[in-house]
């Protein structure tokens, strides 16, 4: 099987749905809930509560705070066909992770499961967005 035949091989025109929003929240879980509702615009067949639960479960494994008052929440979502990025600016910083470091911006990444190259490319796209301050 060639690399072009692999299910997880990146596609030249990989569709990625992107959303940008400003969120008013008092804690990380509220932010993740709003991220999940925004992501449903691109994938209306998915349950927003289930999406939020996947993002919260990932945070339990290990915080996605990356420093610089930013976080990169991400999860593989069953039933998702294409990556979804949600670029969030918080109206006020919220405590994130074990140490409660303040986060004022996050770019959430939702990807189809079992497609590691797609997951990595989506994370790279999110990191570029964070670095560009867009």
Name some characteristics of this structure.
134 residues; alpha/beta; 3 helices; 6 strands; 32% helix; globular; disordered N terminus
Question: Can you walk through the features of this model?
Answer:
Helix content is 32%, strand content 29%. It is globular. Helix 1 (28-39) packs across helix 2 (48-61). Strands 1, 2, 3, 4, 5 and 6 form a 6-stranded mixed sheet that branches. It is of the alpha/beta class and 134 residues long. A hairpin with a 2-residue loop joins strand 2 and strand 3 (70-71). It contains 3 helices and 6 strands. The longest helix is centred in the last third of the chain and has 17 residues, at 116-132. The chain starts with 16 loop residues before the first strand and ends with a helix.
Average pLDDT confidence is 83
Low-confidence segments, given as residue ranges, are 1-13
What is the helical fraction, as a range of percent?
Answer: 25-40%
The shape is globular
Radius of gyration: 14 Å
Distance between the termini: 39 Å
What is the SS-derived class? alpha/beta
Brief summary of the model shown:
This protein is 32% helix and 29% strand. The chain has helices spanning 28-39, 48-61, 116-132, and strands at residues 17-23, 65-67, 70-71, 74-76, 84-96, 101-111.
């Amino acid at each position: 099987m060639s690399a072009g035949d692999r299910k997880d091989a990146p596609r030249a025109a990989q569709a990625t749905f992107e959303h940008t929003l400003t969120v008013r929240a008092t804690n990380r879980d509220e932010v993740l809930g709003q991220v999940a509702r925004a992501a449903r615009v691109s994938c209306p067949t998915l349950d927003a509560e289930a999406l939020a639960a996947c993002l919260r479960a990932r945070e339990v494994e290990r915080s996605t705070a990356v420093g610089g008052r930013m976080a990169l929440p991400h999860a593989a979502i069953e039933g998702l066909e294409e990556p979804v990025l949600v670029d969030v600016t918080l109206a006020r910083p919220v405590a994130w992770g074990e140490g409660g470091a303040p986060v004022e911006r996050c770019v959430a990444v939702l990807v189809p499961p079992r497609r590691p190259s797609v997951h990595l490319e989506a994370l790279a796209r999110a990191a570029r967005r964070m670095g560009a301050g867009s």
